[in-house]
Design brief:
Elements (H helix, E strand, L loop, with lengths): L13 H25 L5 H28 L5 H21 L7 H21 L9
The structure holds fe (ii) ion (FE2).
The site of fe (ii) ion has 6 residues, from helix 3.
Length: 134
């Protein structure tokens, strides 16, 4: 079931919110990829786009958000950075084990579960602290 964007996820910074919304879209798209994989007709080019997006996300978006928090003296800046590093470790290891050409249904399910947890736990509980700094 898709995770719907709602205002509880807004951090009050338009650029950050837009990047987060993109992550929602990609996370929800994985559900379709899982269905395709189960049916034996996985669109591997779409998986490749997903990998490229996540690479950019963990580099560009994390850096931007960390800078925002640091500049605004956000009280969870360090906690946020540590969570990003942990996610980066997950993504690095995931990349070591899987490529768009070799990825399995189980790996897609794992990625989806991780991203879904990230959206509802990290964005909703840590990133939203930016709100109080705007
Ligand atoms: Fe964050």
């Amino acid at each position: 079931m898709p995770i719907q964007w709602s205002e509880q996820y807004e951090v009050g910074d338009p650029r950050t919110d837009s990047q987060h919304r993109n992550l929602f879209d990609y996370a929800n798209q994985i559900e379709q990829l899982i269905e395709q994989a189960r049916a034996g007709r996985l669109d591997r080019q779409a998986v490749e786009h997903l990998f490229v997006f996540l690479d950019a996300y963990v580099n560009t978006h994390f850096a931007y958000e960390e800078l925002c928090m640091a500049l605004r003296g956000c009280k969870v800046a360090q906690k946020n950075k540590e969570a990003h590093n942990k996610f980066l470790e997950f993504w690095t290891e995931f990349n070591r084990q899987h490529t768009p050409q070799s990825i399995s249904t189980a790996a897609l399910e794992n990625l989806h579960a991780t991203l879904a947890g990230w959206l509802t736990q990290h964005i909703c509980k840590v990133d939203v602290a930016l709100r109080s700094t705007v």
